[in-house]
Structures are given as C-alpha cells and as structure tokens.
Fold this protein.
Amino acid sequence: MDWKSVYATSADIRGYFKNFAEKYSLRQFIHLSHQAIGAKWSSEKNGWDVEIRNLKSGTVINDFCHILVNAGGILNAWRWPAIPGFNQYKGPILHSANWEDSVQLDGKHVGLIGNG
C-alpha cells in the first residue's frame, strides 16, 4: 500500500485492513463488537481455549485457536480524565481512541489534555 503520509490516519489504517480482509476473503472470520475475556493454553490440543463475549447480546462463546495475537492495546479501555468540572464543559470533547471526524477544528482554539 502507498500511504498518503508518514503518519497514517485512522481512516487510512481502517481502509488498509478493510481492503486486506476483502482481498483475502477474511471478512467471514471477523466479528466486531466482541471481546476476548479469557484465554487458556491447552497442552492436550496444542492451542488456546478462548472465551469471547458478544458485546451486543452479552452471550459468551467458547472457541479454540492455534495462534493467539494479543492486540488489545491500551486504547480499548480509554476513559475521560478525572478533572473537577470536566462534565460541565459545553463544547465538543474528543478522545483519540474515539475520534469524531465530523467536529470541525479549523479556526478554533483547542485545548489538549495529555499527549500519550
């Protein structure tokens, strides 16, 4: 893939993964809104027994895999900072882990809290 910039945007990365999944017919194996809640190595099966929660229905699925990639990342459990009065702010509030592209920042004064 030819990236548009040195630091890819979230839209570019999402597009890359979407195209990759379509190219290699992987979409049938991808389940969104699911969370791995446990994984245990099975010596008998030489692989991982995995517990997965469907975040929409709450049901738990038990599955098995030979290869397990931990790609949880810190931004899967993001939260707003504990700042007194934070919930009283009336303007748009954005978090890098849950960005809203529709908010226009051009010509606005932007406050940044933390930078990773």
About this structure: Residues 1-30 form one domain. Helices lie at 10-23. The beta strands are 34-42, 47-54, 60-65.
